[in-house]
Every structure is written in C-alpha cells, then in structure tokens.
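Sequence in, structure out. Go.
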Amino acid sequence: MDAIRAQTPPELQYLVDDGFNRIVLYDNTAVSATSEKTPNGKYKVTLEVQARKVQADGNGAETPLPLADYIEIGVFSGKKDEEKPLYLKKEKLTEERKTFEIIVDHAPTLAGIDPYNKLIDRNADDNMIDITRRRPSTRLAEKGGSPGDVQSSSLRSRSRNGVMESLRAVFGELENL
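Output:
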C-alpha cells in the first residue's frame, strides 16, 4: 500500500483511501443537457450534473463525504450503447450541482457524468441523458427578447400558419382566439 501511495500525486490521494480503506458510493445524475449550433458550425452543449458521495459502514449506515473528486464528463454522438465520444474529460467537482458548457465539432445526442460507470453508483442508469436541441435565439436577443420568448414566438407563428383553422374545424366555430 505504501508503494501505491508513494506513486500517487497529492491531489489524487483520496482515490487510494476511497478504493482501499473505505466503502464509498456515489449518486451521480445527468440533470439536463441542451445543445445549440453555433455560427461557426460547432455545437455548444450545456450539461447540468449532480454528484453526491457517501461512505457506508459495514452495517449499511451512510455518512455524506465532501466532494472534491475528478469525475468524467462526456458528450457523445450516436445511439445509446453505440455512442462515440465527442468530449470526455475528468473534471474536478467540488459542488453537488454544476453546469458545464462544452463545445464539440459534431451534432451531439447524449451527455453525462461518469458515462462509463467507473464509480460505484446507486443508479448508474441516470448518468447519461439525451440532449435536447435549442434553436439559436439571436433574432430575439437583438430585439430585446429573452430565451423564453422563443417558445411563444414559435407558437404565434404556427397559429398564423393554420393551427387555429384546424382547431376551429375540430371544435366548431370559436370566435376571437
């Protein structure tokens, strides 16, 4: 054990303790992930993650541990179980919740925390999440709008393009919608 500790850098000594001296469990979750195509053709991914760390004793009682761990953050393309990494990096997490902004070259489909389940996690199925696409809101921002205006602007546009007529046909003559 002394040989391992001697070869381990100071910032990674916690791995020796976590791996050999105590029972450590994680609760890592990918909370949300969106992407937006940038003007230069790349994709900006915004990924929110949550991470918790506990120590369990021999009887199953758990004690929260402070988080100061390097955990992989990943962005992928392709279908689940066939994904290809676009970004994979160990990031130091010191807070329970953190948001990352990551630029990748290709359209992403999945993102997550500890995507290859290297850490002992209570529910490894929630480490990855599908990425939701966001349309750039530059036109609204230039006019002083907010990102929330994108949805209402889109709904107004669709109503002008026949949605209201379809509703009238289904529900009868509705005046002043």
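Check: DSSP finds four helices and nine strands in the chain. The longest strand covers residues 23-37.
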